[in-house]
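Reposting from the mailing list since nobody answered there.

I have sequence plus structure tokens for a pair of proteins and want to know whether others read the tokens the same way I do. The first protein:
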Amino acid sequence: MTIILNTEKRRVILGESLFLVGGPCVLESENLALQVAESMVRLTDELGIPYVFKSSYDKANRTSVKSFRGPGIEEGLRILEKVRKTFGVPILSDVHHPEEARAAAEIIDILQIPAFLCRQTDLLLAAGRTGKPVNIKKGQFMAPWDMEQAVEKVRSTGNSQVLLTDRGTSFGYNNLVSDMRSIPIMKKTGCLVIFDATHSVQLPGGNGTSTDGQREFIPTLSLAAVAAGCDGFFMEIHPDPVRALSDGTNMLRLSDAPALLKKLKTVYAVVRGK
């Protein structure tokens, strides 16, 4: 399966080679979005890796009511549209309810269903009806084989452009575990399967009023995932994660991206015999 994304400047094909969905967890500012997008477009062009810019205009599931959620849909879509037009890169962002899916689809190239909402029928149907590709993140509470039902909800709209993303499974309190069997199991749906390398190292709610994380294990899990057959990666990337307004403890440092992506591309080639 391949998914083709066209912008005014680029034609990005997902599924023919290892691809990356990446960017800051949340839209902190226009300047940060443009900075990360510029760096990642340059890097992925050099490596020959298809790239989709990702950032959320609203993080609706923050641990604390006081946590930064983002600029909201109106300002957020304005920033994402500027990134898209400036660099010609496709855009992915989260949607949380049916009306939002329809509005976001006017700007966004891939609509993402957050993990906690992956069973929400009305949201999945609304996203599918936009005709845009839909990336469904597997809920931390879901078995990989149960994602077939979420896929079928989108496909029932006539939209076959569905991706699935594994982001770890709840493993006791404040912990996740990545079961690499999930990748080949979800690939049986015929969807492209992405591994979320940064959310998978989260310790949800581990800091009491915020999520903790173990950034040092991003390379370990990423290498395991590409060996298990994932088609692409989802990575939240920030130039200074310590100062990030969301998910700082589990985001990949921008300066660490080149070495990791080079290694993943090499392993992908070996696994796929390319």
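The second protein, same order (residues first, tokens after):
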Amino acid sequence: MRVLYFTRDYTPHDHRFLSALAATPHEIYALRLERRGMQREDRPLPPQVTQIPWRGGQKPACWRDYPALLRDLNRVLREVQPDVIHAGPVPTVALLAAFSRRRCPLVSMSWGSDLLMDTARSRWDRWCARAALQRSGALLADCQAVANAAAALGFPRERMVLFPWGVDLTHFHPGAADDLRERRGWQDAFVLLSVRSWEPIYGV
């Protein structure tokens, strides 16, 4: 099976998904919508993943770029002939895939803020998300709040898959902090560890 993984930029999350897909027997292709300011991931793609050169992925994308991007996406899809397209965020990347000419299953993936924040900005953003979801066979969501937002846009819950990110227990596990508490004098303190990046969108 040929899987086209279509994402907005290249982040550690994309690397994790592509590494997992690379471990399957499927042919994996990667497509990047844009290249934004700060580079968030510098590890190369897994060698089993084929990066597709195309019109996108070189600079930030704006709505006026979408007609030309859609034309080139149709060319890519003719050449790659994917059996399934995995695309997200929903109102941007999945929207492009949803309006492509290639008729194969579309699995949309919400990155959280796309359905929880972006769709609250305007009717246009809500329309884009709803249009992408209407043409999606399934939705991957990382929490119940995202699932609720998709349901509010009319997407059926029985076609949603929830995958909470979770914690890597080889690095963080109960009991490991006792020695650290003692060294820091925190035995009676309430300690909160935040591993979230301190970008404004997260409100840390």
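Reply #1 (J.P.):
I read it the same way you do. The CA atoms of residues 89 and 111 lie 6 Å apart.
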